[in-house]
Amino acid sequence: MTDTAHRSMSRWFEAAGFHLLLLTAAALLGWLSHQYNLAWDWSDSARNSLHPASRALIARLDAPLRITSFAPENPVLRGQILEVLERYRRLQPLIEIDFVNPAMEPTRTRELGIQVAGELHLSYQGRSENLRVIDEQSISNTIQRLLLRTERWIVGIQGHGERRLDGQANHDLGSLGAELTRKGYRVRELPLGTQGDLPANTGVLVIASPQRDYLAGELRAIERHIEGGGSLLWLLEPDQGPHPAQLLELLGITPLPGTVVDPNAADLGLDNPAIAIVNAYPDHPAVEHFRLVTLYPQAAALSLQPTASWQARALLTTLPRTWNETGPLKGRVARDPQQGELAGPLVLGYSLERRIHDKTQRVIVLGDGDFLSNTYIGNGGNLDLGINLLRWLSGDEGLLDIPSRVANDLLLQLSDTQGAIIGLGFLLILPVALFTAGGLVWWRRGRA
């Protein structure tokens, strides 16, 4: 065999070996992709992956969660739905996904109340809920609602000028009530005068800034709720409305006279000194990892008279330079110690706990209701704080919030100069460079 034939045969074997190895590697990669389901998300803010809060939420599942999509035989629609749901199933094998063609099972579709194509039906341990908006925020919140094992009501007392949890007026708490409902809580308003006692499934009783005194029978019903170990959120107001002495004595809380004045508000561009600022929180489960600034308009400071039964902790504390102003909030105001005006930091809220009837009872008393009103709840972290407090009172602090994430990398913003440079590069410089490289290759081959 000549040298030329030997080299030709060697090159043939090398090429055949290379292609054989390439095919083997491709087959091996295909087999590995079926055996191991791995994914990487390089998008901005990892929007194509589950938020850590969603991951922690589905980790709490201890029984199969069945998700049924009622979608027609449309590959595009089903593919889009499956893409979202697979993010959950990849991390939690207890999640089962199924597709049903509504046209093939009209009876089942009608019985479950399915109304739109692609609507989801989630069922978990005998509880179920339909979902039309298919994104992480909505799906995780639905799972969160299904995880609430018992229907515990958040009950707001009505009939004495209180802020309503379903009200739309500026002073009402309708935005808070709507968010609680969205997160799976049952929010009810109750005219206490028509009830002998609060419903047995009252999870948290809310007393939201009443403007008129409670009747003796109504006070006894509230006392029975507290003495029976029920949770309570009590929103007080400065020098406004009734502050039932027997309830305050039972809890060991006393409102200080006047309204909290906070000169630090000017540092945030606020021109109202009667807005108190809280930007630091204690090591308490209700505000664990909470780092948002919260604002409290027209708030009352509170003092504590410790009792033997309650374990009380300051929950909300103002910044230094604050005081409780007892005079008119007009013109220049300054602290007058002779009028009982105390220098801050002042306490705006206390949490109280005790063991009673073989369970832990939780109470929160705050010196302000405006911060949760429809007018102010969007300021700073007011809404998030309100949700956290009610979660703690309900014993559901283990349930996590799933914030929506903004996709910041969907839009490429370029200046005119940057656009011109890119356009010049693609339209002129790159073609010239390719033409030059091709010419050099041709010239070198011609010389060889």
TrEMBL record:
Ranges that cross the membrane: 12-32, 420-443
Keyword tags: Membrane, Transmembrane, Transmembrane helix
Domain DUF7088: 46-115
Chain ranges of the ABC-type uncharacterised transport system domain: 157-380
Domain of life: Bacteria
The protein's name: ABC transporter
Pfam families referenced in this protein's UniProt entry, alphabetically: ABC_transp_aux (PF09822), DUF7088 (PF23357)
Keyword Transmembrane helix: yes
The organism's taxonomic lineage, starting at the top: Bacteria, Pseudomonadati, Pseudomonadota, Gammaproteobacteria, Chromatiales
